[in-house]
Write the structure tokens for this entry.
Amino acid sequence: MSSFKAVMVTKDEAGAQHVAWSTLSENDLMDGDVVVRVSHSTINYKDGLVLSAKSAVPRKFPMIAGIDFAGVVESSSHPNFKSGDAVLLNGYGLSETHYGGYAEKARVKGDWLVKIPSGMSAHDVMAIGTAGYTAMLSVLALEKHGLKPSDGAAIVTGAAGGVGSVAIALLKKAGWHVIASTGRVEEADYLKKLGAAEIIDRKELSEPGRPLGKERWVAGIDSVGSHTLANVLAQTKAHGAIAACGLAQGMDLPTSVAPFILRGVALLGIDSVMCPMALRLEAWKRLASDLDHSLLASMTKTIPFNTVIETAATILKGQIRGRVVVEM
């Protein structure tokens, strides 16, 4: 492959961003000790922000978009990887400070790569992607906080999205009674198939609320932020915890100290981008064993690479259900 396609974000002299297809050669790639022929990527909410050409996510220009990829090693000077290894990458600054996964080739640091778990394909791991991997990190955080299904219910906000869909399936597998919050009530059957026991309208949580409310759940995974997260915290049982991993409603958190000092509620921050490798490997090991492949397939659709720009635009409108795999 002497040349290859990539989705490039540029900035003009007036500061306006532009997204367009580019043709590159391997010499155009950034520094790294492993070259990967990319076979699959995916679309996360963050990818939608980047391809909107209005976000602050890219911190260098030009920048190849895409925060995930999976593929096969073409060449490597890193001791842990050799030609032919099947690998994946989530985060580590892809599409922010380092060229991302919306390209048919990538050159990255081997220290960032994870070998695709046995029994999984490149398509499988991108069906999970950063969204699903973030959901697993959130489940691990709740478990390490000491919470268990016998303590009460778990809420998942943004339930029909990528993080939410995988989170429901993982929590159900672990034995939790899952409450799914969504603005798309027409997706109730889909959410119940994934494992949701109850469906609530996001309107119950998305407006300004009281500092403390009725205790309804002991755990939660929130990908929405803003008033939704504030209300989730206000309705969390004593000594419960909420894993916060997204900002679909906003970056603000209009809450008070009441849930924290009167009920001992914990807010667990989830960083998927610079997550330590040991925890990253633990998450992927659990995903390989705990996530039902038939459920994963039911929440996933596959699109060709040449439609990624227009498809990514729909995720910001809340029009994507579950996960999307981009096939190169």
